[in-house]
Amino acid sequence: ARAQAAIAAQYGIKIIAVSVGAEANQTLMAEMATIGHGEHFQATGTIDDYSQQLSAILHTIAGGGQTTLIE
Fold this sequence. Notes:
By secondary structure, the protein is α+β, with helices and mostly antiparallel strands. The chain has helices at residues 2-10, 26-35, 47-61; strands at 16-20, 39-43. α1 packs parallel to α2.
């Protein structure tokens, strides 16, 4: 994964990593975002919490534009 992130970065691709759940590998996700000159976001808690957090994360990623989570 690190090698692919480095290749993406060489091509100017920004990596935005989103971790969901307490058991997600936060260290790896943060590293991928760092390699790809992007950001790492994390959503934890209950499924209801995830939905609210993911909506906020997507809103941030979209630069404040409208976003909608679908099931």
